[in-house]
Specification:
Radius of gyration: 21 Å
Number of domains: 3
Catalytic activity: 2 D-alanine + ATP = D-alanyl-D-alanine + ADP + phosphate + H(+)
Largest sheet: 8 strands, mixed
Number of strands: 20
Cofactor: Mg(2+); Mn(2+)
Shape: globular
EC number: 6.3.2.4
InterPro entries: ATP-grasp, ATP_grasp_subdomain_1, D-Ala_lig_Van_CS, D_ala_D_ala, Dala_Dala_lig_C, Dala_Dala_lig_N, PreATP-grasp_dom_sf
GO molecular function: ATP binding; D-alanine-D-alanine ligase activity; metal ion binding
Order of helices and strands: EHEEEEEEEEEHHHEHEEHEEEEHEHEEHH
Length: 388
């Protein structure tokens, strides 16, 4: 590894405090299985639902879960740690209720310690790069990115601003519109507000009601009659007090992956994929994403070459328009007329080996292990701790 006399130590951070905890755990299993241990020293760090950080065994089978039980980082399942910034980088420092901050045992990080070219700093386990495989609030919204920036640690993915902007669907649409990119009609409802008669007439039926800052289709409802609107708003506000009401767009649901290039320059795009849904909810909801056998994912999408090229161009422009870094998945609608309208930009998309983002890149010639390797290398080259 260029610039390193030993293997860089990468912390894979997963779980988290959001409703997408289980999805993050499944994504992390794929990443843990794919990281090349000959090139990197791996430290799995699970974030329990209560916010506790835990160093876990270097085993793709973690965290706990199985059968009908969703995977979860369970409090007390590993050594509790905090991230401690220092003048020469950042370290994971263990927490002990009696002794306070003590060194993380080398055994807690698998083969950590022996090949780092010297002992870790007293009281901590030094890190070189972080892969935050976190979805939703407290992971994909700029919060952990800010923590890592303050710690001076390189990390995979977009920075504070792009992460926060992409997570908030209102501000994402405002920024994309300002960049001259197409988004669908929508209205924003803050706490206590409901949809005006003017907006009902403008948006028409059906509409989709969703939390402004959420993911994995949690809290989203399709509304086909206005008498059902208040219930849908209440469901969305169970995840976020700010709610978006979006006009339905007739068209095909298409996704496209975007990656930074190792040598810099314009981002690279994957072949597009299509989501074909047969769902009782009438859209690509949580069940259709994770539990239905009636959802078909076509990789690559069967699109005319000029339409596929337009999707890829819009995806790259959205990536640049939000100032993303590393990776993103851009979700669009392709209308019967061939127009491409942006739905969402995800700065840390689902990352299981069967998720659409890695599947699109595999179909584009970059398999899952090579994709993980590229993202870590991009983070190391970019560095951490300030504007780049």
């Amino acid at each position: 590894m260029a610039g390193f006399a030993r293997r860089p130590r990468v912390a894979i951070v997963f779980g988290g405090r959001s409703a997408e905890h289980a999805v993050s755990c499944v994504s992390a299993r794929g990443v843990l299985a794919a990281v090349d241990r000959d090139r990197y020293e791996v430290v799995p760090v699970g974030v329990a639902p209560d916010g506790q950080w835990l160093v876990l065994p270097d085993d793709p089978a973690v965290p706990a879960g199985g059968g009908h039980e969703p995977p979860e980082v369970r409090p007390g399942a590993g050594q509790g740690v905090v991230l401690a910034p220092g003048p020469n980088g950042a370290a994971l420092v263990a927490l002990d209720p009696v002794a306070g901050a003590v060194a993380v045992p080398a055994s807690a990080a698998g083969n950590a310690g022996g090949e780092r070219g010297g002992p870790d700093r007293p009281g901590g386990l030094d890190l070189d790069v972080v892969f935050p495989v976190l979805h939703g609030p407290y992971g994909e919204d700029g919060t952990i990115q800010g923590l890592l920036e303050m710690a001076g640690l390189p990390y995979v993915g977009s920075g504070v601003f792009a992460s926060a902007a992409a997570m908030d669907k209102q501000h994402m649409k405002v920024l994309l519109s300002a960049a001259g990119l197409p988004v669908g009609p929508y209205a924003v409802l803050r706490a206590g507000e409901t949809l005006s008669e003017t907006d009902r007439a403008r948006l028409g039926l059906p509409v989709f009601v969703k939390p402004a800052r959420g993911g994995s289709s949690i809290g989203i409802s399709r509304v086909d009659a206005w008498e059902d609107l208040d219930t849908a708003i209440k469901v969305a506000r169970g995840s976020d007090p700010k709610v978006l009401v979006e006009a339905a767009i007739a068209g095909r649901e298409i996704e496209c992956g975007v990656l930074d290039r190792l040598g810099g320059g314009e981002p690279e795009t994957s072949v597009p994929a299509e989501i074909v849904v047969d769902s009782s909810a009438g859209f690509y909801d949580f069940e259709a994403k994770y539990a239905s056998s009636n959802t078909r994912l076509d990789v690559p999408a069967d699109l005319p070459s000029e339409t596929a090229a337009r999707v890829r161009a819009v995806a790259a422009a959205a990536f640049r328009g939000l100032d993303c870094a590393g990776l993103a998945r851009v979700d669009v609608f392709v209308t019967p007329a061939g127009d491409v309208i942006i739905n969402e930009v995800n700065t840390m998309p689902g990352f299981t080996p069967t998720s659409l983002f890695p599947r699109m890149w595999a179909a584009s010639g970059l398999d899952y292990p090579a994709l993980v390797e590229r993202l870590i290398e991009l983070a190391l080259r970019r560095g951490g701790g300030g504007p780049r």
